[in-house]
Every structure is written in structure tokens, then in C-alpha cells.
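R.M. (postdoc): so does anyone remember the format we settled on? I'll just put the C-alpha cells first.
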């Protein structure tokens, strides 16, 4: 798979995690210079990195950054039952181990480290931050999953039943995943690309996966005030997958001194799969935020900014 260009060096590597699973990793770096800072992708449920994140990575590399991805167990080109998450903590352990191994390389010591979490990947970013609160220099969160909206939250009895069934048949694939690409991606070309991507899972979600996502969401919702790292949270106003009001709640409750919320009226869940002009706005906001924090050693102003575009 050729992702190379005269500006971008692309490399792939399979690694083995602590549980013996083979995990796919990839990286995009500037061809002719050292990256000025490191960005680590945390992808969403049923997604992958190598194809889906190619455009994002190319834009970030051209802005001077090194970009690193990993396909979670059971996702993309990594081993494991498709989309099966037996324990969300495994994802955190895998990402933490891989990302820190990159950060601790001699050539990377002293470089700033940023997490880039998309949807469920937002939950991954939050939990990586919780695991090592002072390690990460910030996070970019696109429509993060940090709370189940109240009208979607199952009744406690349903949650108890789900937990009991999971104990007996955790890999039972009964939860349907409707084809919502037409309501997630606004750009017709991007829809075609998503549908033709062989590494994106489009089947039913295993019960255990659904239970893990619910439990993680409830946990993060209760502990939004524990978020202390700088972050930029971006959300489409017409997102039907994750609730934009939850990103506003994150902005209000997080203890971070440096926090920014950008709401894009009329945009959908996949902010980088909008129509071209809107995509350019999103990337401009991301790169501007990074540029203000990637190299500067002085602390960013403690004033919070609540930006609505």
C-alpha cells in the first residue's frame, strides 16, 4: 500500500501485545526533517488507521508533525475477533505501551505529545490521560464518546441483563449496526471510500463490546472533572452519533486551564468527511491549535476559550 509522497514517509509494522495478539501499527513522518511534535491517533469503533487516516496524517505531516496509529485488537489489520472488545482496558494498555515506546525513543525525547481521538477514540484519549495525567501535552477530540445521551441510555434493568448475558455469551453478535454512513459522511466521495475500505467492520456488534462501551461512557461521564490536560474538542451541530451537548459539558466540567470547544452548526459526526470547504475549516482549526502549543515552552494563557464557529 503506497502512501508515500515527496513530503510524507509512510511505514507499517506489526507488533505483538502482552496478550500475544498481533497488532498493526503505522506511522507518517516528514521525509526530510525531524517532526516538531508527535501526534497519536486513537480511532473509533469498527474503524482502522492506515486508509481512513491517510488524508489527516498527510495534512499534519505537511504541517511538520509525526503521526502514529495503531489498529485496536479486533479492528482493521490487527488480530482478534472482529470488533470484539473483551475489556476496554486492553485497548488502553496497548495504546499506552505502543505510544510511550515511540515517545521514549532518543530522537523523540523533549518533543511534545498529542492524542488525536475520534468518537470512541476520544474515550481512549481520556483514559490514557487518566493513566498518566502529566504525560500528554494535549488532545484533539473529534466528536468524542464521553457520555451516552440521556434518551439513549438503557434502563438499569437492561444494563443488568446485558451484563448477565455477556457473562454467558460475550461474543454473541446481536446488536445491529445500521448502515448510517449516509448520515455520518456528508461528502459522497468519502462515503464511497468508507464503503470500499476492507478494514472497516460493518457487521453486528458483539454484546460484550456494547457493554464495554456503555460502562466506559458512564465512567467518563462521572469523571469529566478529572480531565486536566489541554484539549480542543470539535463537534458537528447535527451529529446523530455522539451528542454535541456532551462536548459542551466536557468543556464546562473539565479542570483543564487550557480548553477550547468548537461547534460547527450543520455539520455531522465525521467532521473530516464533510464537503471540501467545511473540511478545510476543521483542519485549519486543528492545525492552528497545534501550532500554538507544539513548540512553545511557555505556558499557554490560563484563560479558557469557548469558540463557536
Amino acid at each position: 500500500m503506497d502512501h508515500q509522497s515527496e513530503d510524507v514517509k509512510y511505514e507499517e509494522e506489526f507488533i505483538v501485545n502482552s496478550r500475544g495478539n498481533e497488532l498493526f501499527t503505522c506511522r507518517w513522518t516528514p521525509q526530510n526533517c525531524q517532526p516538531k511534535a508527535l501526534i497519536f491517533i486513537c480511532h473509533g469503533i469498527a474503524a482502522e488507521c492506515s486508509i481512513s487516516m491517510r488524508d489527516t496524517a498527510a495534512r499534519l505531516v505537511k504541517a511538520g508533525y509525526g503521526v502514529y496509529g495503531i489498529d485496536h485488537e479486533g479492528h482493521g489489520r490487527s488480530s482478534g475477533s472482529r470488533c470484539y472488545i473483551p475489556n476496554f482496558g486492553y485497548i488502553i494498555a496497548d495504546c499506552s505501551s505502543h505510544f510511550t515506546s515511540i515517545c521514549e525513543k532518543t530522537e523523540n525525547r523533549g518533543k511534545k505529545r498529542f492524542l488525536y481521538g475520534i468518537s470512541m477514540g476520544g474515550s481512549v484519549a481520556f483514559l490514557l490521560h487518566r493513566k498518566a495525567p502529566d504525560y500528554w501535552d494535549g488532545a484533539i477530540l473529534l466528536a468524542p464518546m464521553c457520555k451516552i445521551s440521556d434518551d439513549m441510555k438503557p434502563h438499569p434493568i437492561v444494563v443488568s441483563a446485558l451484563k448477565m448475558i455477556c457473562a454467558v455469551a460475550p461474543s454473541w453478535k446481536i446488536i445491529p449496526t445500521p448502515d448510517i454512513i449516509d448520515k455520518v459522511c456528508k461528502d459522497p466521495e468519502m462515503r464511497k471510500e468508507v464503503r470500499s475500505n476492507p478494514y472497516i467492520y460493518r457487521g453486528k456488534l458483539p454484546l460484550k463490546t456494547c457493554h464495554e462501551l456503555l460502562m466506559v461512557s458512564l465512567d467518563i461521564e462521572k469523571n469529566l472533572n478529572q480531565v486536566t490536560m489541554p484539549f480542543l474538542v470539535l463537534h458537528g451541530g447535527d451529529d446523530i452519533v455522539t451528542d454535541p451537548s456532551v462536548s459542551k459539558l466536557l468543556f464546562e466540567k473539565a479542570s483543564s486551564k487550557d480548553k477550547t470547544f468548537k461547534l460547527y452548526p450543520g455539520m455531522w459526526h465525521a467532521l473530516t468527511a464533510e464537503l471540501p470547504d467545511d473540511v478545510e475549516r476543521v483542519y485549519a482549526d486543528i492545525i492552528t491549535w497545534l501550532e500554538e502549543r507544539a513548540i512553545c515552552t511557555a505556558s499557554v494563557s490560563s484563560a479558557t476559550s469557548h469558540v463557536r464557529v
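R.M.: ...and that's the designed sequence above, right after the C-alpha cells. Also worth knowing: The chain has one domain: 8-292. The two ends are 37 Å apart (CA to CA).
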